[in-house]
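Consider the following assembly input.
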Amino acid sequence: MSYLEFLAQYGDRILGGTLVTMLLTVLAAVLAVAIALAAGLMRLAPSAPVRGAAAVYIEVFRGTSLLVQLYWIFFVLPLFGITLEKFTAGFVAVGMNLGAYGAELVRGAILSVPKGQWEAALALNMSPAKRMVRVILPQAVLIMLPGWGNLLIELLKGTALVALIAVADLMFQVKQINGTTFLSAEAFGTALIIYYLLARFMLTPFMRWLERFMQRKLGRA
Amino acid sequence: MLDWRWDFTFDILPRLIAATGNTLLAAGLGYAIAVVLGLAFALAQRTPYRIVTAVVREAVEFVRSTPLVLQIFFVFYVGPQFGLRLSPWTAGMIAIGLHYAAYLSEVYRGGLESVPKGQWEAATSLNLSTARTYFRVVIPQALPPSLAGMGNYLIGIFKDTPMLSVIGVAELMHTANAIGSETYRFLEPYTLVGVIFLLLSLPTAAGIRLFEAWVRRKLGMV
């Protein structure tokens, strides 16, 4: 079977899998950003128990493997009475894992906003919440965006693991195709190229655009 | 509901601890491959030949931005299609070693670029060959700034070894899966795997930070 015939026959399934992978990536990214912001801000809270809770979350998720977390969420959480559908379990695991890495990024970026900005906001009598939202965070976002670019590629790659709990993403589809046709080079090779194209020509340009957009927003272009 | 069984826990603990040995072995072997191959990738991007640089650069980007689990499948299954059978261990070590070599080459690249140009000029004026300049002058100075990144990826490779279970390397995750399918109990094996990873990776991370600080002090960089 030539490669073109292979594509004609299995293109639909590969395309369907790619769409599922993209959807998983978007959902996991939204979750990861939300968790990273929450945990990153909690790490800087004045109250020690709040800081401690965030630190435990971050260390647990960064200290174990994504695959272990995924299996734990999918197979063990139901024993606690929380049953997630496999698709949900998939993007929740990836989002929570990358959220822990993102939290450290958020914390570092907030701390690297120059001290003068904090003092100026204080001098203007802004409340702590207003200071964070209006002055510190917008500048911190600009500092952390390059880091998020790398994390989102990690996240996209991380979604490939959900195939192991039978979510029908790109990885899962090519694994199935390989199982029935034994055309491993074609099946896995195509998937490798699609993941590369997604990372290189969608995620990376999007993050570059976002960086420029934020720079313009803050008048630093 | 939840019932944690301690007798079962102690039943399976020896098996999991034995598998931890395999996990550490896989991480160590993979890392050894990555450290050497990564240096080759980094040096190949500094040759005067534009083509070599461009090809290696693109290959590194490709490996870095595609999923490791897919690469593991690829290496394991593509061989037999062309009549070359690799054992799970061989395929796994090639895949994970190559993946982390791509990461480490970026770390080395940063380190190599941080060596001041004057060092090269001094080596040239002493009539040292390029190879000698690299191994006696440049790489020793590029190493300390690379240590932090190298340490992070050592922990990274350790945490990525569970992916080797997909092609049947008998490491921790594979053993936990086997226990789960034999006994239909997932709570204890998966939780223990998580705890073992945590117990190993947290102290290692702390140890690496100490080692880094020690190297910096030794070299008078503080």
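Chain B touches chain A at residues 1-2, 61-62, 64-71, 73-74, 77-78, 80-82, 159-163, 165-166, 173, 176, 180, 186-187, 190-191, 193-194, 197-198, 201-202, 205 (CB under 8 Å). Ask yourself how this observation constrains the way the partners meet.
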